[in-house]
Amino acid sequence: MNAHTPIDIDARPLTGSAPENHEIVVRDLRFNRKEKPRRWWLADDPVGTAWHNALSATFPRGEAFFIESVKAFRDSAPPHLAEEIRKFISQEVNHSREHLAFNRAAVDAGYDLTRIDAHVTDMLNLAKGRPPIVNLAATMALEHFTAILAHLLLTAPEILDDADPEVATMWKWHAVEEIEHKAVAYDTFLHATKHWPRRRRWLLRSISMLSITRRFVSHRIDDTVDLLAQDGITGWKARVRVLWYVFGSPGYLRKVFPAWAAYFLPGFHPWKHDDRYLIPSGVAGLEGYA
């Protein structure tokens, strides 16, 4: 697969469901317990390391929010969707545990993640008291973000070239499962709003994505700059290096833009882009981590 191939947003027309015979597999795996990652575990690159560490620092609290948002609608879901929600929750619990372990290793390597954790806490506090459907819409948007970033990681393996092998494997495992369950929150939203007019449904998911995107991009860049400062890399040059990493090379956010924009199309569904072909190579080598 060419790493620079854009995601085809018109790959396969579906009607709001996973492809036939699709399965969400719960893999209860553990990483980074025996050998701790290096401080700059990604090719001795402080910028790439800081970007991924900043992402990881948000996952435990963020995924707990995802779980609660989707679980709020589980009891009213039809049996097949309820089972997918159960597996979604199991996968997210495992992701949270493994990123907690990874984050502890980053702290052991000398990084202070408390400011990032405070940012995430402040954001999640905004969700308190909101209607459950609004929180589900936010989860749906963030799940689309994680799915398209997961797609990028698996189609552009050079991003993790020269990373500590166990850390790279953890990220690939996480990416595989994000692809597997990428439509669960979306299908839960479709079921919960099945009596809504289409325009109302589209407006809520679009407004949620725009709000999420603004915060996600600005906060992750700020968090990455914060971690670089802890390595003594400061000033405007530090921010330029981060912006180049996400918009230039390897271009995390630039490369996922077409798939991000597809979210706003009327009739969008995550499985209109069927990328299950990435799963076999993504799970290769996981046997030793049970």
Automatic annotation (TrEMBL):
Entry annotated with the keyword Phosphoprotein: no
SUPFAM superfamilies: Ferritin-like
EC number in record: 3.-.-.-
Coiled coil: none
Hydrolase recorded as keyword: yes
Organism of this sequence: Novosphingobium aquae
One annotated GO molecular function: hydrolase activity
UniProt keywords, alphabetically: Hydrolase
Protein name, as recorded: Metal-dependent hydrolase
Domain of life assignment: Bacteria
